[in-house]
Amino acid sequence: MKKMFALLLAVVLVLALSACAAKQPAGKLTMATEATFPPYEYYEGDKIVGIDVEIAQIIAEKLGMELEVTDIAFDSILPGVQTGKYDIGMAGMTVTDERMEQVNFSESYATGVQVVIVKDGSAITSVDDLFADGANNTIGTQTGTTGFLYATWDIEDEGLGTVKAFAKTTDAVEALKNGQVDCVILDNEPAKALVAANEGLSILDSEYAVEDYAIAISKDNTELMEKVNGALVELIKDGSVQKVLDKYIGK
Ligand code: GLN
Questions:
Q1: Nearest atom within ligand 1 for CA of residue 99
Q2: Maximum Cα interatomic distance, the chain, rounded to a whole number of Å
Q3: 4: helix, coil or strand?
């Protein structure tokens, strides 16, 4: 009888333990981002919030994983994903041919537009002014971004000005306010947020480039890519991704 009881106890214990295990997340999903990019990622107090964080969160939930977000320099995100230090990179990250040589990208979940911010009353009144004969502007950008790359190729390499790169979008905007740069090239949504938060700045009407944002994952981690992309595609189809975008954009 005693033996019977011990056995029963053992069975109950095993069941209780496995029930416990089932409730535990199936692992961590680590995400690298750069959190001066509102509304995609920014600080609310000491918490990183925004579109990318929420989309990553609903993907993680679907996969039964626990999301962990780390804020690093923008140009460290892809190397961090490549070396496996982080599972995913999500930072309003534009899909480009060069980056596709380094990492794999998920389906696109949002569109970005490169725009130009100037101080009110600036001599630069359209994007074309940046490419005009004899132009000689100092362009502020964030290091390693597509804005930085385009400005380098189209403006600096053509002898039409100088590109200054900053670690954060907010630093580039400060430099514009201080007169260290004549304009800043960056993505439209952070541009809107930064112009709203800083007096005396405006966004030029003309667009510089239209781009797709996607999630970066190591080329070595095709299993995770399938899982993450599968979840993302479902969340796009059922409207969950749009809901997150609507929550932050165009209110
Ligand atoms: N979309 C731009 C890029 O991928 C900028 C992203 C960012 O600054 N977070 O380069």
A1: 4
A2: 97
A3: helix
pLDDT band with cut points at 50, 70 and 90 for residue 250: confident
Summarised one tens digit per residue, pLDDT across range 152-198 is 999 999 999 999 999 999 999 999 999 999 999 999 999 999 999 99
> CA of 140: how far to CAs of 66, 86, 94, 214, in Å?
37, 29, 18, 24
Which helix (H) or strand (E) element contains residue 70? strand 66-71
pLDDT reading at 237 higher than 80: yes
The residue type of 110 is: A
Closest approach atom of ligand 1 to CA 145: 10
Tell me which residue has its CA closest to atom 5 in ligand 1: 145
Distance CA(29)–CA(31), nearest Å, equals: 6
Condensed to tens digits (0 to 9), the pLDDT of residues 81-123 reads: 999 999 999 999 999 999 999 999 999 999 999 999 999 999 9
* Residue 5: predicted pLDDT: 62
DSSP state of 131: G
* Cα-Cα-Cα-Cα dihedral sign, residues 58, 64, 69, 74: negative
Which pLDDT value is given to residue 206?
A: 85
Q: Enter the DSSP assignment of 41.
A: B
CA distance 165 to 150: 12
The neighbour count for residue 223, using CB atoms within 10 Å, is: 9
What residue has token string 């692992």? 27
Q: Is the CB of 112 under 6 A from ligand 1?
A: yes
User: Where do we find the tokens 């000005």?
Assistant: 161
Both tokens of residue 116?
């130009």
Which residue among 145, 163, 168, 212 has the greatest number of ligand 1 atoms within 8 angstroms of its CB, and so is best to mutate? 145
